[in-house]
Amino acid sequence: MRTEIHFHQTTTSTPDQFVAALTDFGPGRSKLFGNSADAYLKVHHRGRSEADVTEGSGGIWERLHYDWSDPNHVVLTTTDSNLWGGASGHTYNFTRNLNGTTDIEAVVVREGKNLKGRALGFVLRTIGRRVLETAFENSVKAIEARNGAATEAPVSGTSYSSRKNISNGPAGSNV
After folding, report:
1. pLDDT at 162
2. What is the pTM of this model?
């Protein structure tokens, strides 16, 4: 069963600043992305607009193909994992606002490939969404702080929705 969770956040960071943080695979990555512990981080390949990276934390890891060739649409596709398979991955869409802020639409897709993955997928569909939402909010705040962006700028609330999708069709970071 496939879990798809949607998040929205408005940030004072530009799309370029957010993508730069998302694709910074150096030490200290966990300060920006709590679910990406430095001990799990391994960059297999990095190009100008794509990378092949293994990351994770807490006994959960995944190998992701990052594609940021479109600076307003970044796709992380899970290519291997101890829990996730199928259409698992992350998609980030960025929209610049007239007031200088950026809307981020993030989608996390989880398709468990074994019993533990299916069980965790169920938890994410139910009570676990808030954990992912908090991690996303914390990443946005950390990236703003990294860029020295003023957090007093008008920022809309965060919202999320979750829906089950039985199809195994292709789908668009970091859980």
Report:
1. 32
2. 0.83
